[in-house]
Write a structure and sequence with these properties.
Elements (H helix, E strand, L loop, with lengths): L4 E2 L9 H10 L18 H18 L5 E6 L2 H13 L5 E6 L2 H10 L4 E7 L23 E3 L2 E2 L4 E2 L11 E4 L16 E5 L10 E6 L16 H6 L9 H17 L1 H21 L4 E2 L11 E6 L5 H10 L2 E2 L10 E4 L6 H18 L1
Parallel strand pairs: 1-13, 3-4, 3-5, 5-8, 8-9
Antiparallel strand pairs: 2-10, 6-7, 9-10, 11-12, 12-14
Helix pairs in contact: 1-6, 2-6, 3-4, 6-7, 7-9
This protein binds pyridoxal-5'-phosphate.
Pyridoxal-5'-phosphate binds next to helix 3.
Length: 360
């Protein structure tokens, strides 16, 4: 069976080379006579796998020793509460920017613990553009400023890193991590669910500046306390070992492609050609302000919603999978993360061209 082009927003397509390597190593990891899935997380072998993955991730993302790199569980959503529990310290208020569904979820959860100040909202423009930072009403006494660099569902992505002064900047990088270079030193904390650009679900990667550790509220569950996780090299309990191993294979693959700079070039090319095609064809539309269009998630609508089912059926038949938009917004969405080859985008454009010609 040949592999399809899978445009799912997450869990998302993984590099074929990584899956093949995992297949080869499945029954016997390097002469140990067992799968990584069956190894003790305390074994020398697994500790080496874990340390190598962290080292490669630090190198790829440019994470200095000023930061702890944590491999946690519970997905990005669990960070929505872990962050306020750990970072509020003796403060009561936190700043949030509302740019779509994922920001809203982060805000709703933070409200359980903090006075949330929504410094700016894209709700007024239907989440199609990012409010200029000059209009944000930030609080210099906030414990942190949280934002969502890429809204996976809306397809809205910042083209700038907000300035937050002395207030630690916190970012949900779930759907854009490692897709282009980023100056990590501007951030207090970065988190990302793994299942888009890193590996299988179940794992969430956190970069936290070390001076922000040790401030967790006393009611913070142990498993959510960054200090505890950092002190125990993310092995306070049994970590998601197989996801961690696969993430490590993805990091090696990324390095072999030329790292995030090379990925940025390819990702920019893939996104540009898809948006150019959509803009140049009357049958398709994307509502996002061109300045803030996501490189990773490209939502689009057909001129006639009544043709959605037929479009998806035809796409499936060609091995172009999971193009249905999120249930909250409808339409279509093509997620084109690092592991989506350019040939996948070309095949999608080819299909969209033919569909518009025949049914438009
Ligand atoms: C930007 C963003 N944040 C958070 C999440 C939630 O991630 P998880 O399902 O790992 O909790 C997602 C999932 O798609 C996401 O795209």
């Amino acid at each position: 069976m040949s592999r399809a082009f899978n445009f799912c927003a997450g869990p998302a397509t993984l590099p074929e080379a990584v899956l093949k390597q995992a297949q080869e190593e499945m029954l016997d990891w390097r002469g140990t006579g067992m799968s990584v899935m069956e190894m003790s997380h305390r074994s020398d072998e697994f500790v080496e796998i874990a340390e190598t993955a962290e080292k490669d991730l630090r190198e790829l993302a440019g994470v200095s020793d000023d930061y702890a790199v944590l491999f946690m569980q519970g997905g990005a959503s669990s960070q929505f509460s872990t962050i306020p529990l750990n970072l509020l310290g003796d403060k009561t208020s936190a700043d949030y920017v509302n740019t779509g569904i994922w920001s809203k979820k982060a805000i709703a959860e933070a409200k359980r613990y903090a006075d949330v100040n929504v410094v700016a909202s894209a709700e007024d423009n239907g989440f199609t553009s990012i409010p200029e930072q000059s209009s944000w009403r930030t609080n210099p006494d906030a414990a942190y400023l949280h934002y969502t660099p890429n809204e996976t569902i809306g397809g809205l992505e910042y083209d700038f890193v907000p300035e937050s002064g002395d207030v630690p900047l916190v970012a949900d990088l779930s759907s854009t991590i490692l897709s282009r270079p980023l100056d990590v030193s501007k951030f207090g904390l970065i988190y990302a669910g793994a299942q888009k650009n890193i590996g299988p679900s179940g794992l969430v990667v956190v970069f936290v500046r070390k001076d922000l550790l040790g401030k967790a509220r006393k009611e913070t569950p142990t498993m959510m306390n960054y200090q505890v996780i950092a002190d125990n090299d993310s092995m306070y309990n049994t970590p998601a070992t197989y996801s961690w191993y696969l993430a490590g294979l993805v990091f090696k693959w990324l390095k072999a492609q030329g790292g995030v700079e090379a990925m940025a070039e390819i990702n920019s090319r893939k996104a540009t050609k898809l948006y150019d095609f959509i803009d140049g064809n009357d049958f398709y539309a994307n509502p996002i302000d061109p300045r803030f269009r996501s490189w990773m998630n490209v939502p689009f609508t057909l001129a006639d919603d009544g043709l959605n089912g037929e479009f998806l059926k035809g796409a499936d038949a060609r091995g172009l999978l999971n193009l249905k938009g999120h249930r909250s917004v409808g339409g279509m969405r093509a997620s084109i993360y690092n592991a989506m080859p350019e040939a996948g985008v070309d095949a999608l454009i080819q299909y969209m061209t033919e569909f518009a010609r025949e049914r438009g």
